[in-house]
């Protein structure tokens, strides 16, 4: 996007940059007519389906302009300049809550209640006007210099009274740390979804980190669906349990168990605030005097601690010495690439892991090679990267920045299918020289796209969705799955038999080419299964939560389940030959098997970041993509 500082657009003179985000750049500008500063969020609209984008942009600006409340950032209107569109809004001199959290760690409990009540007033007003924010989080709440809290960025809000709204019900919109269970499942989003996200935000303000603070997106999502957050009273000394009760009700899994309205939650916050004030007052009255006896006990306690410390040190020394003299540590050894593939009979000769320069810093979720020199990688904020030299260099072409793209498939003839949030399916027949959108209703989140031949392909998604194409991806139709769980991945051993995997250990199988699916009953695994790969000989490998690998040697009829390490979640499993398989996942996990997944070797990758997808190039080089635009090559 071009630099606009110093340029005058209508009656607005651009002064400086306030920040950059997924939607564009926010500028500070001076309104020469009304003699005031404003903020202008500029978006680059030079993208596919421009007319539809402009219409949606104007709709959002008009929606926001309907909201006038002291705890909501006011929108004045929109402007157009050159190839850009901008929302003109109130300039707030202050900081967002996430910046304050990064600087000071967490908030005083009194400040949390003070800010929370203001946000509830603003959100309650928006809900009464028929709007749901859908992305409440610390970065969307700003505190001005007078201490007034304001909600900003209703850019993905949805009018409850407008059935023709472009932002459809069921689209998975929001930020995963603060996303309600119904958003994750792709269900209807209501005012109670905002209350859930506000509960997550309040939790982070008190504790200093989100309620489900994991590195893997799917571990976070799984926790939103299944787990209760750790008690605040256990994490922070002096926090009474009534605060836990407040936050836990706001974050109830079932929307009907949450506060029905912001007004109801406001009254509860007010009551808890008053009770906490009384508790704190009584506490300080009781503990302000310290006696000489207390000082003596403190000294005695320190001496005892010192003696215990010496004993622990001796114990640790003797135990470690015994461990080193034994060979027990060898069982935990991490291999480097060259050592693992040094044998002459190795099918592959991997020697090194190198990072490839990437033009983006957003999460990359999928990568595919066409079979010649063309490759594509896709990610969040509409990122599409292409390479014409087998992944050695990449360039950005991009799509709608509001859509997160999940996966991509490339055929040797140049056909490319890309899938993502909001029922997004992109189709190209010519190596992405031109792209068209395949229309699909329902607001689904798509996770994986796979083809079993040139014409037959499948897409997995939220709400138990599997879609099939028999004409190369030009059109798609739903097939029968009889489940509402998220389906992450699928694979086929032949044109008739396939297996699909998803949430809660879900495994489905088909024997009719994917027209209908039914559960595999003998698999007992209660975590998510993220990825599956099947050979024509019937060897099946599936990977999922808790670094667990599921293995079958008979086309999925019987399964072995093994937790291979205490390493977090796995994201992708791939057979790279008849015998060799590779797995990647969170915290830079990289494991190889030379015996069809029977045993695994952990590679010391030194990546330490989540890897989301991997693929073997025509040059027999492995490529991995992950968070912050990371691309790695193993060769």
Write the layout of secondary structure elements.
Layout: E1 8-9, E2 12-20, E3 25-31, E4 36-44, H1 50-65, E5 75-81, E6 84-90, E7 94-96, H2 97-104, H3 109-128, E8 131-132, E9 141-144, E10 149-151, E11 158-159, H4 181-185, H5 191-207, H6 217-226, H7 232-235, H8 241-250, H9 262-287, H10 292-325, H11 337-340, E12 353-356, E13 364-369, E14 375-379, E15 384-387, E16 395-396, E17 405-410, E18 416-420, E19 425-428, E20 436-437, E21 446-451, E22 457-461, E23 465-469, E24 477-478, E25 487-492, E26 498-502, E27 507-510, E28 518-519, E29 529-534, E30 540-544, E31 548-552, E32 560-563, E33 570-575, E34 581-585, E35 590-593, E36 601-602, E37 611-616, E38 622-626, E39 631-634
Antiparallel strand pairs: 1-2, 2-3, 3-4, 4-6, 5-6, 7-9, 8-11, 9-10, 12-39, 13-14, 14-15, 15-16, 17-18, 18-19, 19-20, 21-22, 22-23, 23-24, 25-26, 26-27, 27-28, 29-30, 30-31, 31-32, 33-34, 34-35, 35-36, 37-38, 38-39
Helix pairs in contact: 3-5, 3-9, 5-8, 8-9
Domain Protein kinase: 12-269
GO molecular function: ATP binding; protein serine/threonine kinase activity
Enzyme class: transferase
Give a concise summary.
The chain crosses the membrane at residues 296-317. With 635 residues, this protein is α+β, with helices and mostly antiparallel strands.
Structure description:
It is a single chain. This protein is α+β, with helices and mostly antiparallel strands and 635 residues long. It has four domains: 8-90, Phosphorylase Kinase, domain 1 (2-Layer Sandwich); 95-285, Transferase(Phosphotransferase), domain 1, CATH 1.10.510; 294-332; 337-634, YVTN repeat-like/Quinoprotein amine dehydrogenase (Methylamine Dehydrogenase, Chain H, 7 Propeller), CATH 2.130.10.10. It is 24% helix and 28% strand. It contains eleven helices and 39 strands. Strands 1-2-3-4-6-5 form a six-stranded antiparallel β-sheet, covered by helices on one side. Strands 12-39-38-37 form a four-stranded antiparallel β-sheet, with no helix packed on it. Helix 3 runs antiparallel to helix 5. The longest helix is centred in the middle third of the chain and has 34 residues, at 292-325. It is globular. The model is unreliable at 156-173, 281-302 and 307-332 (pLDDT under 50).
